[in-house]
Backbone:
């Protein structure tokens, strides 16, 4: 796979180098398609606003891209914050190439058709309506992989939007169609490419979830307007005999940082377990950066622990610095692990926790150094009211800790 990846990049770089005229993106809309398993297509739309900028659309989400470079008939589009990028060549006004994540040795073929703003191309009028709440189980019956979720959808004609919330986060802004009795939803956020397809009746759905071209799992769901997931505050906890946590990891300057440092003494501290590769972590980091920048005058600190799958320490630190600069994070991000984002290995770095179940996870510490709450996962803006509820709960709880 590493050889194939290098070959793809080399071929794209070398394409048509004898041409003198520089080809650039044509302004307008495009329909991009990533190839996934089972000959399924994972589509999303983007709009080119200038030769160096474009916008990716997922329902209400707009992702702005400003790292577009050219070399003869080749184009490179870098995802914001994340490491993934598109390497392609021009075919007239269209594009063809691969979406590449080098650290994971993943290559996904893609095409992009100019002047096409359709996402999915339906063949039949919608015969079902999925608006409402769906009690969902992924990988049902597969003991180690089974997990629950809450589907939340809105349908207008044949257009469908919504998301799946799990106990550890959400599956982003999903957008798609009801094609006859088949639901098709997709999202692309620069890190994750998700496709959901399902056959739907008035009260059930059954289908498959695809992530890129490397993952597929089944899911089933039933209507249940009263369904709720377990509390995110009860999933991760300190092992018996612990009431606090401790760690020492390097910051981006190579300095070792510990919770015992003067910076954190007699303050409310939020420890964020995260990764620069994680979209839910990005959503949480944006909110934490905003909150921290507006509350620096109070006795509060945030410190993030990054668990990176980058293969070298240098690459990991580069990605941390990129995240900090792109979204304006002023609190420290420490490198807790590189070479793997495995949750079991992460738990070894924080042995006082029963487990690291999710990226992100937030640990709330009071002014005396005691852990008061651990919140697993993060429900971002795609979850609507749940995101608003989280912010209200977060700010209220932090305020209470500050007043103690």
Residues:
């Amino acid at each position: 796979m590493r050889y194939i990846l290098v070959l793809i990049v080399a071929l794209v770089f070398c394409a048509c180098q004898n041409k003198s005229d520089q080809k650039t993106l044509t302004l307008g809309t495009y329909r991009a398609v990533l190839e996934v398993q089972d000959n399924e297509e994972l589509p999303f739309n983007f709009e080119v606003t200038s030769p160096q900028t474009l916008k990716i659309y997922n329902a209400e989400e707009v992702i702005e891209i400003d790292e577009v470079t050219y070399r003869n008939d080749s184009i490179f589009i870098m995802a914001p914050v994340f490491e993934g990028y598109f390497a392609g060549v021009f075919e007239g006004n269209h594009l063809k190439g691969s979406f590449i994540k080098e650290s994971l040795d993943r290559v996904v073929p893609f095409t992009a058709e100019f002047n096409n703003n359709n996402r999915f191309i339906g063949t039949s009028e919608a015969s079902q309506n999925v608006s409402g709440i769906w009690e969902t189980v992924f990988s049902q019956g597969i003991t180690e992989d089974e997990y629950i979720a809450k589907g939340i959808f809105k349908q207008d004609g044949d257009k469908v939007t919504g998301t799946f919330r799990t106990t550890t986060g959400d599956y982003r802004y999903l957008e798609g169609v009801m094609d006859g009795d088949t639901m098709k939803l997709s999202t692309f956020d620069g890190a994750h490419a998700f496709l959901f397809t399902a056959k739907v009746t008035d009260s059930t759905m059954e289908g498959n979830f695809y992530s890129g071209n490397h993952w597929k799992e089944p899911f089933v769901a039933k209507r249940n307007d009263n369904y709720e997931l377990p509390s995110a505050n009860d999933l991760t906890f300190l092992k018996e005999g612990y009431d606090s946590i401790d760690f020492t990891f390097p910051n981006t300057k190579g300095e070792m940082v510990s919770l015992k440092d003067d910076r954190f003494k007699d303050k409310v501290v939020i420890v964020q377990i995260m990764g620069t590769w994680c979209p839910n972590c990005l959503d949480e980091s944006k909110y934490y950066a905003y909150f921290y920048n507006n509350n620096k005058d109070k006795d509060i600190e945030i410190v993030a622990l990054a668990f990176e799958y980058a293969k070298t320490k240098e690459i990991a630190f580069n990605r941390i610095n990129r995240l900090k600069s792109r979204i304006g994070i002023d609190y420290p991000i420490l490198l807790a692990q590189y070479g793997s984002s495995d949750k079991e290995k992460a738990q070894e770095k924080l042995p006082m926790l029963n487990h690291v179940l999710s990226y992100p996870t937030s640990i709330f510490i009071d002014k005396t150094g005691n852990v008061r709450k651990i919140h697993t996962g993060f429900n971002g803006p795609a979850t609507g009211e749940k995101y608003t509820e989280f912010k209200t709960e977060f700010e209220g709880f932090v305020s209470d800790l500050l007043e103690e």
